[in-house]
Amino acid sequence: MQISRINPNNVSGSQALAALPFDLQVQELVQRIEQFTKYEGFTDTAIDAVQLIRADHPTTGTLTVYEPSVCIIAQGQKQAVLGNEILRYDPANYLVASVDVPVMGQVLEATPEKPYLCFRLALDTQQISYLLLAGGDEIRKTASIKAPPRRGLFVSKANATLLDAVLRLMRLLETPADIPVLAPLLMREIIYRLLQGEQGETLAQIALAGSHAQQIGKVINTLKRDYHKNLRIDDLAREACMSSSSLHAHFKTITNMTPLQYQKQLRLQEARRLLFAEQLDAATVSHRVGYESPSQFNREYHRLFGLPPVRDIARLRSSNALFGQA
C-alpha cells in the first residue's frame, strides 16, 4: 500500500492533522501496523505500553480480561461481549476499558488480503490523574467523585485529532532513539484526547481517589489476585468502604455482572488457558482454579463456552484461536 507520507520532523501536529484527512490517517495506520505484524497474534513493540494485533481470519469467541487500555482498529471489525451487552468496533470507533473486565472477544471481519489490524495502548491511571490536575477546567469538569459510576467498557467515535497522536506515536517505532523522550509525551496526549472525548468522564472516574469507580477497582484487583479463593461479599464490601448492597449495585454498573459472576469468569478463563497451554485434565484444572466439584466446573464451563472442556479445547486448537485483548 502506497500513501503520501508526511515527515513529522517538518510539520507540527496541527499542520499534520490539516494535511492528512481521517481516511488517509486510517490508511497510514494500516500500513504501519502491517509493517510490524507479519504473523497473526500479538506483537509487542519497542514502546512498552503499545501492542499490535493481527488476525487473518475471523475468530471464535475467546474469553479474556481487558485491562485498562484503548483499542483502535485500523482494519477489520471486532465485537466484545460484556455480560449480555455487545459492543462492536471498527476503524470508525475505538474501544476503551477503564477497569479490568472479563470480555468475550471475537474478530468478525478479517481475510489474509485484508487482515484485522489493531493498535492497543495500555492506560496508566497515574497519567490520567496527572492530566486531571494539569489539563485545565475543560478536563477537570469531567471528573467528580460524586458522579455515579458508568460501564467500565465503552465504544466512542474515532476522530482525526486522536488518530494524529496515535500515528505520531507509531512513527517513533522507526526512530527508536526518540522513544524514551517522545513516547511518554505522545501517550499522555492520547490520554488527554480520550478525556476530551464523549465518554471522558467514565475514564476520569477510575483515577479519582474516593470515587465509586476507584473503590470498585480495588475489589476487582482482589478478585483478580484471589480468583481461586472462596471470597465473602461482606469482606469485599469492607475493602471498598461500601455496604454489600452498594457494592453489588456499583459493581454491576461498571462490569455488567455481580462480583461472584466476575470471579466465575476469571476462574473459567484461567481454566481454559491452562487446558489450552498445558497437558492437564479437566479435573486437575478445576481444582487449581478453585472449584471443589469437577462436575460443577464442567457444567459452568459448558454453559459459558458452549462445549465441554475437551471438545472446546480441540476446537480452539484447530481454529488457531487468539488469546488476549483487543
UniProtKB/TrEMBL annotation:
Q: What is this protein called?
A: AraC-like DNA-binding protein
User: Sorted alphabetically, which InterPro entries does this protein's record hold?
Assistant: Homeodomain-like_sf (IPR009057), HTH_AraC (IPR018060), Tscrpt_reg_HTH_AraC_N (IPR009594)
Domain of life of the organism encoding this protein: Bacteria
List the Gene3D superfamilies: Homeodomain-like
Q: Which SMART domains match?
A: HTH_ARAC
Say which species the protein is native to.
Cellvibrio fibrivorans
Q: Which UniProt keywords apply?
A: Transcription, Transcription regulation
Q: Which residues are in the HTH araC/xylS-type domain?
A: 217-315
The answer to whether keyword Transcription regulation applies is yes
